[in-house]
Structure formats: C-alpha cells, structure tokens
Amino acid sequence: MDFLSEAIGSVRTGRSYARRVTETGSWGMRYDEFTGSGFHVVLRGRGWLVTEDAPPRALRPGDVVLVAAGARHGLSHAPRALRELPPATMDATAPHPGPADFEFLCGAYHLRRGRAYDYLATLPDIVVTSPEKGPSWTTSLAELLVADLSAPGPGADATRSALVDLLLVHVVRQWLRDNDTADGPYVDDPVIASALRHIHSAPYASWRVSELSAAVGMSRTAFTRHFTRVLGKPPRDYLTGVRLSRAARLLRESDAPLAAVARELGYSTEFAFGSAFRREYGISPGRFRDAPDTLPPAAGAVRGDPLATADPALSG
Over the Cα atoms of the chain, what is R_g? Predict the structure, then answer.
C-alpha cells in the first residue's frame, strides 16, 4: 500500500496555491491553522521559523518547511513570539523589486471540505528538511515552480498542481529517509501499524473491529482502547476517514456513478454512502463533485467542518 500516494491524492481534491514571496527589512507573517497541507522553500537569505511549542529555528537557503496538516506557524526576520506576527495574506502581489533580504516559495493545497488525510496528520506538525542531509529534488522543483509562476501560460493550473504535488512528495520522502521511517503512517507502535496496513490495503472490506483486533492478536476491547490512545480516534472513525478521503478523490478525478463509488468503498447502498459523506464533508457527493473549489480569502482559514460520526458500514 503506497500511503504517500494516497495522501497526496487526497489533498488534490482541494485547490492548489503557490506564490513567490520576497521580504526586505523588518518583516514577519503568521499562518494560522488551515485545512490542508503546504510548504515553504527558502530560496534566498536567512529567516526564522516560529511555532507555538518550540524555540524559533533559523532557516537558510534550501531549507523546506513542511506543514503536513495545516498547523499554525510563522516566518520572521528575527526570533519573535508567534502571537506578535501579523496574519499572512494570500494576495497575488508582485515580488519586491530589486534584491531582497529573504525570498521563499509558498505552496499549499487548501481543502474547503473534509480534512487532511490521516497519513499526513500522523507526521509531526512542522517538519523541516535541509539539503545538507543528502541529495534532494526540492531545489530543482522549486526553481521550476518559480519559473512557472513568473511567466504563466496555457495550462498554468495543471503545471502548478503537478509541481506542488511533486514538492510535497519529495519533502515527505526526504523526511522519511532522514528519520529512517518506512513508507507508512508515522506510527512507531507495531500493533497499530499492522492494523493500519490492513485498513489501507482494503478499505472497502466490511471490517469489524473484532476482525482487526484478531488480526493483530488483541482482544476487541483492548485493541479499541489502544488504537484510540495512539491515534486519537477509534478504529471505526479512522476507517471512515480513509474511505471517504478516497471517495472524494474518485468524485473529483472520475465520472463514475455515485452507486459505483459507493460499492468500490464498501458501502452497501448509495444512500448509506451519501449519508456518511455528508457527515464528513458537509455536502452531498453529487454537489461535492460539481462544486468549484475556491481559495479561501486568507492563509489562516479556520477548520470549520465537524469530524464525522461513526460509519455504520463498520460494525462491532
């Protein structure tokens, strides 16, 4: 099971965004929590990454800041408290003319509906990779994206999305290599990792909690408690998220009838699928497929969609 491909496919249901930013003098910006995944690539100069829970971290050219699941953070010319930074905006203002003290590339997928794929949510809130730790494609990809943003032409939306995809993949790959982590949800618990492999390899299966617990050699009650403690949600909710994330991707990338999508994800009826989808995304599958995805007005779009309730397709 290629978890990373699944994760990138899931955020692709949102709208891609990319911008080259240049700053000079005293500057700073705060990116509030948002629904989606994004990154910053330092192109020139030195700056500081500011978060709520860790000391400010110096950034140099080639460093990449990955925000896998939309965590709150900031960038600044000097170490500062996050609350002191003004909110960033997503306007399309031109880069500062002339040489800049600090230049970076900002890219993201913003999701109007749903939430970040669980694989991405298992990564640390903020990941920083550096070219010093080994060969990386991120610099070359960043240069391509900057060139595409500087002179957009026909197909700009397609090239932007493709390059944002590639940058996200290579940043996560480098972090996995740097941390000797396999290509799977970042869970260091072997029991839960085994359960996740079962779920992700066949999310359409009519899984029972008792079947998953038996597969990993635990009692149903002990497994449910352990799973919830490690991942913050019970097995049935996790499976629901995986199923509906795939469903959202199918709705955006194919013209398969809703009944076929429902069957492919293990729902017995189109009605059951539609009910679960509305609970997760706040909109019917048909409207989700047809609705244009628009950028939020600012980089700090607040999570607004409630978490899904239990999926009736997963029984105890």
Answer: 20
